[in-house]
Task: structure prediction
Amino acid sequence: MEKTQRIPFGTVAIAILFALGGCSGMSTQGKNTAVGAGVGAVGGAVLTGGSVLGTVGGAAVGGVVGHEVSK
Result:
């Protein structure tokens, strides 16, 4: 029988707040690059069934697309 670990909601909320706080001094292009990388990583993971290579590849492609959208 598999046990799943549950991360308390408060811990996740604090992590998200710290992550968003780190973006406050970024340029618009930097923010778009970060958002693109995040979305690409999630998309790559979903499309490849959680493959590390798919996640990293998706993050790279998403980061480039997010960077180019700002120009």
Notes: The CA atoms of residues 57 and 71 lie 22 Å apart. DSSP finds three helices and no strands in the chain. The first helix runs from residue 9 to 21.
